[in-house]
Amino acid sequence: MSCQSKLKVLISDNFIVYFKSHVYHLNVTGPNFPQYHSLFQEVYEYLLEAHDGLNEQYRQMNGMCMVTLKDYAEESNFSLDNKAKKDVAMIEDLADALGDILTISQMLYDEASKESHGALETYIGDYMTGVSKLKWKLESCK
Fold first, then answer.
1. pTM score
2. How far is CA 111 from CA 1, 11, 27, 67, 127, in A?
3. What is the pLDDT of residues 42-71, one digit of tens each?
4. Which of 40, 51, 72 is nearest to 141 (CA)?
5. How far apart are CA 20 and CA 3, in angstroms?
6. Residue 95 Cα distances to 21, 69, 138, angstroms
7. CATH number for region 3-139
8. Burial class (CB in 10 A: 0-12, 13-18, 19+), 114
């Protein structure tokens, strides 16, 4: 799979997990509501901001950005079938999703390094640092 193809999958995964974390933010209940509500917001804000940067990297590779939710769903490793969950299950699900994002990110990072895409390599490295920190925060809540 080419660097550009991996980036397209990462863009899709990032967007689907952004959506999932935003839905969790809106639907969280229970005794830990304030903390989880804020944490989910931190996750979705990071992923939403990264969405723009990831797409800018894709455009620099002469790719055209996806324009429909169907496009994202078809390219993503994640399903749009989001079921209602209790707060702890939301934490676990989101931590797992970020772990999956780190996996595809690492594959893209390695490919960008091999293909001498220095700007992409730097961007993905920084992105992975942020995703890793969010995953750690979620896992600390289990």
1. 0.94
2. 9, 16, 38, 26, 15
3. 999 999 999 999 999 999 999 999 999 999
4. 40
5. 26
6. 10, 23, 6
7. 1.20.1260.10
8. exposed
